[in-house]
Design brief:
The protein is α+β, with helices and mostly antiparallel strands. The chain contains 15 helices and 16 strands. The protein has two domains: about 15-170 and about 230-315, BirA Bifunctional Protein, domain 2 (2-Layer Sandwich); about 325-410, 3-Layer(aba) Sandwich (Rossmann fold). Helices cover about 40% and strands about 20% of the residues. The protein starts with 14 loop residues before the first helix and ends with a helix. The protein binds adenosine-5'-triphosphate and magnesium ion. The site of adenosine-5'-triphosphate has 18 residues, from strand 6, strand 10, strand 11 and helix 11.
Length: about 400
């Protein structure tokens, strides 16, 4: 293996893909900003406990996917596999409970040791939003509406389906867990090895097992919705009523679980059929117990994370093409003057590339190839008269423009 290749599951991102991913992040920040979210940037690595404690040893992420290592000082640290735990840690560390609700948005790389395939990498990127404080269903609606708005603005509204479920409160889930385990115990002999292990540690997770044999057993398993207490039923009803009111379409998917202990009530995933097994583009839920689990105050939370690579792949947004202006100084004195003229034009919001070599014909060919809008030519005569020759490459016309008026002439 060549050492000049990136490590397995990691990639260099550039060109159109980099631009698309940039659009996803910009759109996310604009949309979340319109809901009052503020930037939070947490470290890429944390003490391993920060992830281990809330996610739980039994979770897939902790048991097989984390990049954990001992640093030179002997500290056990982990590259973040997701954002929520780090955001909650930051919330506690910085005493943010003084100012609730807290609306925090983040984006950046995350790391999971997975089998790489299209749309699944070991270093990938997420956008992430968390709303900390309120424990009432209206805020779940806000968070889902925000995700929906983002997906629509990325041109994905008709390509994704929102799967929605409730896990109920702690009491309901405990009751359900007992009923589910009792049922699965009867079919123990046919469960996959993974599911047998989960029967002890995390039985709800068996509900979304990908194993064909498990699926058959799960099809007849008792339903969580039959074990919801009154409060949990009301909570879910309010989320559904809110989504209906705001106009977000959804499907109630009883099999959707986010099998971590701290999840309560709402769980959701936006899924597309266009990316095969990597179909979940954005997912989240309510996690009222997490901050306490990390050793913080009793503060509720609801949030979601989206995979930037997957969102970028799906995005139908036309990339905005920025047409540059080419500035072409002929000779040394003109080259020096061109520095400041280029700065003036850039200050006016224009992309300016300097082409300083070859004869005029060659330069104009390069400008056309780069789809430049204007060529700004400065020779000795122009310099003398403080004017530039501006060639409109679309129209094939040319005009003399004074240096003072140049930035205005090529703007817009
Ligand atoms: P999956 O079922 O695809 O493994 P997940 O449930 O592990 O997803 P989450 O932890 O909910 O994913 O992360 C939120 C989003 O981050 C996912 O919906 C997906 O878009 C993206 N994501 C997760 N893991 C990866 C990965 N390894 N590579 C690229 N994107 C990922
Ligand atoms: Mg996964």
């Amino acid at each position: 293996m060549s050492k000049l290749q990136p490590a397995r599951g990691t990639r260099d991102i550039y060109g159109d893909e980099a631009r698309r991913m940039g659009v996803v992040v910009e759109t996310f920040r604009r949309v979340a900003g319109s809901y009052g979210f503020e930037d939070l940037s947490t470290p890429i690595f944390e003490f391993t406990e920060v992830f281990k404690r809330p996610l739980g040893e039994a979770s897939d992420v902790v048991s097989k996917e984390m990049y954990t290592f001992e640093d030179r000082g002997g500290e056990e640290v982990t590259l973040r596999p997701e954002f929520t735990a780090g955001v909650c840690r930051a919330f506690i560390s910085n005493g943010m409970q003084q100012n609730l609700p807290c609306r925090l948005m983040s984006h950046g790389p995350a790391f999971r040791y997975e089998r790489p395939q299209k749309g699944r990498y070991r270093q990938f990127h997420q956008i992430n939003a968390e709303l900390l404080g309120p424990d009432t269903p209206e805020f779940d609606v806000d968070m889902i509406a925000m995700a929906w708005r983002l997906l629509c603005e990325l041109g994905q509204g008709d390509k994704v389906i929102l799967h929605l479920n409730t896990l109920g409160d702690v009491e309901s889930r405990a009751a359900y867990r007992d009923a589910l385990v009792a049922y699965l115990e009867q079919h123990k002999d046919k469960l996959s090895e993974d599911s047998l292990r989960r029967l002890e540690t995390n039985p709800l997770r068996i509900l979304d097992s990908k194993d064909e044999g498990d699926k058959i057993i799960v099809a007849d398993a008792p339903l969580l919705s039959e074990h919801l207490n009154e409060a949990s039923r009301a909570f879910f009803g309010a989320v559904q009523a809110g989504l209906d009111a705001v106009g977000v379409p959804y499907e109630h998917n009883e099999r959707l679980v986010r099998g971590l202990d701290y999840y309560t009530h709402t769980a959701f995933e936006f899924v597309t059929t266009e990316l095969g097994a990597q179909g979940t583009v954005l997912a989240g839920g309510r996690y009222d117990g997490l901050i306490e689990k990390l050793g913080g105050p009793k503060v509720a939370g609801v949030g979601w994370a989206g995979g930037i690579e997957r969102l970028a792949m799906l995005s139908t947004i036309e990339l905005e093409e920025k047409r540059p202006v080419f500035i072409m100084p002929m000779g040394e004195a003109a080259t020096l003057k061109a520095y400041t003229l280029a700065e003036d034009m850039r200050a006016g919001g224009v992309t300016v590339l300097a082409d300083r070599s070859g004869n005029l014909k060659k330069r104009l060919t390069r400008a056309s190839k780069a789809n430049a809008r204007f060529a700004v030519i400065i020779g000795d005569n122009e310099l003398e008269a403080s004017v530039a020759m501006v060639k409109d490459l679309d129209r094939g016309t040319q005009d003399q423009v004074t240096f003072d008026a140049l930035a205005g002439a090529v703007a817009g």
